Amino acid sequence: MSGSDPVGVPDAAGRAGAEPAAAGVPAPVREPATDADLAAVAAQLGRTPRGTRAVAHRCPCGQPDVVETTPRLADGTPFPTLFYLTCPRAVAGCSRLESAGLMREMQERLGADPELAERYLAAHRDYLARREAIGTVPEIDGISAGGMPGRVKCLHVHLGHALAAGPGVNPFGDEVLELLEQWWAAGPCVEPVGSARSGEPAA
Fold first, then answer.
1. Within-domain flag for 4
2. Mean pLDDT for the stretch of residues 100-125
3. ∠192-195-199 over CA atoms, to 5°?
4. Residue 92 burial by CB count (10 A; 0-12/13-18/19+): exposed, middle or buried?
5. Of 44, 118, 146, 189, which sits 20 to 30 A from 94 (CA to CA)?
């Protein structure tokens, strides 16, 4: 983890039988989203996904859990979030960490640790470079996501970046991976396309 370890935040690795997500998460991918992928993402989000360009990471179950989005939506709206975390279990895990005070604790460390601040700035620059490689949108020039580079917001954004870019890019996204349990352990979060309950949330 970056700097000192998070204080007062439940650690998945410390619970009996729990494995941190970082121990089993696959490498990033970047591949076109198939119709089955788009159907799975729609089921995960509960709505039709907007601006999906590609699958940026797949869960061990095979379903997308991060998609790459276009920086300008079809209706012309600028969209700064390049990597969108779609798995509802992973999103819920991020919300629990936020409720436990992890963002506040990260923000405090960011202000006290120059080395961590430099790594976070590098994550911000990485995010911008990846998005600008797709297209330049003047309205969001210099704006990445998740509060970078000076604030820590929306842990799901940092997790999505970490999953799509791989380890060592976003320090706070890497920390979230160490703290979350393996959200895929119970099987797919939505029923695979082609099954009898295709497109439905998994039990």
1. no
2. 98
3. 50
4. middle
5. 118
- 185 in any annotated domain: no
Q: Angle at the Cα of 90 (from 84 to 92), degrees rounded to 5?
A: 105
8 A C-beta contact, residue 165 and residue 159: no
Which candidate, 151, 176, 173, 178, places its Cα nearest to that of 162? 173
12-21, 97-106, 175-184: the lowest-pLDDT one: 12-21
Total domains present in the chain: 1
What is the per-residue pLDDT across 130-160, written as a single tens digit (0 to 9) for each? Answer: 999 999 999 999 999 999 999 999 999 999 9
Residue 18 confidence class, pLDDT cut points 50, 70, 90 = confident
6-10, 64-68, 98-102: range with lowest mean pLDDT: 6-10
Q: How far apart are CA 189 and CA 135, in angstroms?
A: 32
Indicate whether 14 belongs to any domain. Answer: no
Rounded to 10°, the helix 155-165/114-132 angle is 70
Domain that residue 70 falls in: 31-179
Question: What does the alpha-carbon distance between residue 191 and residue 196 come to, in Å, rounded to a whole number?
Answer: 8
Query: Quick check: 4 pLDDT over 90?
Result: no
